[in-house]
Amino acid sequence: MLKPILIHPDPRLKKICAPVADLSDELRALAADMLETMYDAPGIGLAAPQVGVLERLIVMDCIKDGEPEPTIMFNPEVLASSDDLSTYEEGCLSIPEQFADVTRPAEVRVGWIDENGNPQEKDFDGLWATCVQHEIDHLNGKLFIDYLGPMKRQMMTRRSAKMKRERARG
């Protein structure tokens, strides 16, 4: 089932999310709904706070062409980061139609719990590394615009707020 995506500024997007203590069927269903919502948007990642749930859950799939690779992560955390950096133009489903270059570690090792309750660990690079870091930031109340200078951040926030008002009017 598609979930409405919160649009910045929304105070829930700036909250630190609670760890998932118990993998319930409800949370597994939420993860499936988040994947459906992400693909429909369309996007390559979505974090639970973007659909109003303040728990540590992200979904992502960075495959543009070819067989999808949906990834569900409960309690994801970056375990190690490379010293090498990479810059990607990032966007966000909660800040529609706005993009900016963000520099992050080029490679990260991430640990998480999968939907079956099994601990996982994997190295990510390229777009996957950027995406997983972007989504984990959401769980810590951080948006990609927080990496930008104050002028650009304010401009993007104003644009997003205007779009949010226009959408609310229908």
Walk me through the structure.
Strand 4 and strand 5 (95-105) form a beta hairpin. The protein has a single domain (11-169), classed as Peptide Deformylase, CATH 3.90.45.10. The strands form two sheets. Strands 1-2-3-6-7 form a five-stranded antiparallel beta sheet. A two-stranded antiparallel ribbon has the order 4-5. The longest helix has 20 residues, at 150-169. The chain contains three helices and seven strands, in the order αβββββββαα. The chain is globular. The two termini are 22 Å apart. It is an alpha+beta fold and 170 residues long.
- The parts where pLDDT drops under 50 for at least 5 residues are none
Give the strand line-up of the largest sheet.
Answer: 1-2-3-6-7
Our count of domains comes out at 1
SS element count, helices = 3
Please identify the top-level CATH class: Alpha Beta
Subunit organisation of the chains: single chain
- Rg measurement, Å: 15 Å
Roughly how many Å apart are the termini?
A: 22 Å
Specify the CATH architecture: Alpha-Beta Complex
Structural class by sheet pairing and helices: alpha+beta
Give the full name of the CATH homologous superfamily: Peptide deformylase
Largest sheet: 5 strands, antiparallel
Strand content: 25-35%
Shape: globular
In short:
The chain is of the alpha+beta class. The chain is built from three helices and seven strands; from the N terminus they run αβββββββαα. The protein has one domain: Peptide deformylase (Peptide Deformylase), CATH 3.90.45.10.
